[in-house]
């Protein structure tokens, strides 16, 4: 399963970060996933729940930022957001374009440690 290796990689990366920060529990992990990344969020969450057992991420919330697909329209000369991935054409003028500028992301956006949240309180 594709998502299992992604989840394993995320957990490993976060564990290394937590160890580097002196340890602690992770409160939230935020990912940015493009609609063209080929990741099924449900499958990823399922895999994440399995691989995080016994790690500092055991109680972490997994937040996902959905990144829409953006292409460059050579006619309008702007970057446009596609309403769906069924058609790679500018929604304004209909020009087809394969010049993808966003939507393939699979990034670790942020890691929130339980301690850092406590420290952030006034
Ligand atoms: Zn256009």
Report on this structure.
The chain has 122 residues and is an alpha+beta fold. It folds into 2 domains: 84 residues, hypothetical protein PF0899 fold (2-Layer Sandwich), CATH 3.30.2320.50; 34 residues, no CATH class. It is 30% helix and 29% strand. Strands 2-1-6 form a 3-stranded mixed sheet. A 3-stranded antiparallel sheet has the order 4-3-5, with no helix packed on it. It binds zinc ion. The site of zinc ion (ZN) has 7 residues, from loops.
The domain count comes to 2
**Helix share of residues?**
25-40%
Strand-residue proportion:
25-35%
Number of helices: 3
Mind telling me the C-alpha Rg? 18 Å
Strand order of the largest sheet: 2-1-6
Q: Looking at the structure, what is the overall shape?
A: elongated
- Helical/strand content category: alpha+beta
**CATH architecture label name of the largest domain:** 2-Layer Sandwich
The end-to-end distance, rounded to whole angstroms, is 44 Å
**Distinct small molecules bound, one entry per kind:** zinc ion
Largest sheet: 3 strands, mixed
Give the SSE order as H and E letters: HEHEEEEEH
Whole-number mean pLDDT: 92
CATH domain class of the largest domain: Alpha Beta
Oligomeric organization of the protein chains: single chain
Count of beta strands: 6
């Amino acid at each position: 399963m594709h998502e299992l290796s992604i989840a394993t990689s995320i957990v490993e990366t976060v564990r290394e970060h937590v160890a580097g920060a002196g340890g602690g529990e992770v409160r939230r992990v935020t990912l940015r996933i493009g609609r063209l990344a080929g990741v099924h969020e449900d499958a990823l969450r399922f895999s994440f729940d399995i691989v995080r057992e016994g790690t500092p991420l055991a109680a972490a919330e997994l937040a996902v930022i959905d990144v829409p697909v953006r292409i460059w329209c050579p006619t309008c000369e702007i970057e446009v957001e596609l309403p769906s991935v069924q058609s790679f054409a500018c929604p304004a003028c209909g020009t087809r374009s394969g010049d993808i500028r966003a939507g393939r992301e699979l990034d670790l956006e942020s890691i929130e440690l339980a301690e850092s949240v406590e420290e952030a309180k006034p």
